[in-house]
Amino acid sequence: MPITDIHQLRREAEKARILANNAFTEGERQQLQDVASSLEREATLIELEARRQSVRWQAGEQRA
Fold first, then answer.
1. Which residues, including other chains, have CB under 8 Å from residue 35's CB and lie 6 or more apart?
2. Of 31, 39, 35, residue with least CA distance to 8
3. Are 17 and 32 in contact (CB under 8 A)?
4. Is the pTM of this model over 0.85?
5. Rounded CA gap, 63 and 12, in Å?
6. Between vectors from CA 18 to CA 15 and to CA 24, what angle results, nearest 5°?
7. Strands (DSSP E) found in 1-64
8. For residues 46 and 12, is the Cβ–Cβ distance under 8 A?
9. Which residues of the chain fall below pLDDT 70?
10. How far apart are CA 41 and CA 57, in angstroms?
11. Alpha carbons 35 and 28: distance in angstroms, whole number
12. With the C-alpha atoms ordered 40, 41, 47, 51, is the resulting torsion angle positive or negative?
């Protein structure tokens, strides 16, 4: 996944947090906070996988 997609997930998470802050009910607020957390986790996992692949690729390059 391109880095721009990771940034997009984080932007969407921030939007969900803003909506949560303006929610009328506790239920809506909690749902939106859950969405934000889920998007942030997804972005972090993708970012970590990309770094892991980069390190593996660099390690393979050094062996060659």
1. 13, 16
2. 39
3. yes
4. no
5. 40
6. 125
7. none
8. no
9. 1-2, 63-64
10. 24
11. 11
12. positive
